[in-house]
Write a structure and sequence with these properties.
With 199 residues, this protein is an alpha/beta fold. Helix content is 29%, strand content 29%. A four-stranded mixed sheet has the order 2-4-5-6, covered by helices on one side. The chain has a two-stranded parallel ribbon with strand order 1-3. The chain is elongated, with a radius of gyration of 26 Å.
Length: 199
């Protein structure tokens, strides 16, 4: 019976292939599209509603809205599509997305012995959702507008996995979008009541 001896280098290469084969790529989480169709429709006495995305992302640091699993501008477009309804025969409304930014700032780390026993917050995210709803009718009601702004801030810990960070940021933007919904719906009731159909 013959015994075959592998050269040390060949053995290392074989072990490397085995370890590589055992590694599995991190599964990317698929997030649901945020919709508002479960909420009551806001009817407006206009013939059409236009959505205008005035905000333009710089697509570079410190802005990161283009890298998130849920972009604020997408959430705001969905809000306008799901909640606003044109029920008039003339006039128009414009839903203008003024701001939909998310910026990130790296936070300083603790130093010394204390750093070894504490989990630092690595980054702070800030978002601002702002929109303006303008209405102009041809039926003698004239013009009107309502605005809404929602801001939020949150931090993420160091050592967080990509999936756990994305999950936290999805919930972050979801919360800001719900804040925006409450403010804009209230301001439409307050400032644009003449442009809504009579009950």
């Amino acid at each position: 019976m013959k015994l075959y001896r592998f050269p040390p280098l060949l053995l290392v290469i074989c072990l490397g292939f085995l370890l590589t084969a055992c590694e599995s790529p991190l599964k990317k989480i698929s997030y649901p599209e945020l919709r508002f169709s479960h909420l009551p429709v806001i009817e407006l006495e206009v013939a059409r509603i236009e959505i205008v995305e005035q905000y333009r992302s710089p697509l570079k640091a410190p802005n990161v809205e283009h890298e998130l699993p849920l972009a604020p501008a997408t959430a705001m477009r969905n809000w306008a599509t799901d909640r606003l309804r044109a029920v008039g025969k003339s006039g128009q409304a414009k839903f203008i997305i003024v701001d939909a930014a998310v910026t990130v700032a790296l936070l300083p780390k603790k130093k010394g012995l204390k750093a070894a026993f504490t989990l630092d917050q690595a980054a702070r995210y800030d978002t601002r959702l702002e929109a303006r709803l303008e209405i102009e009718t041809a039926g003698g009601l004239g013009k009107g507008f309502a605005t809404a702004t929602a801001t939020r801030q949150r931090t993420t810990p160091e050592g967080a996995s990509l999936n756990s960070r994305d999950d936290a940021l999805y919930r972050f933007i979801e919360g800001a979008a719900k804040d925006f919904d409450h403010v804009m719906a209230a301001n439409i009731d307050r400032y644009l009541a003449p442009f809504k159909p009579a009950p």
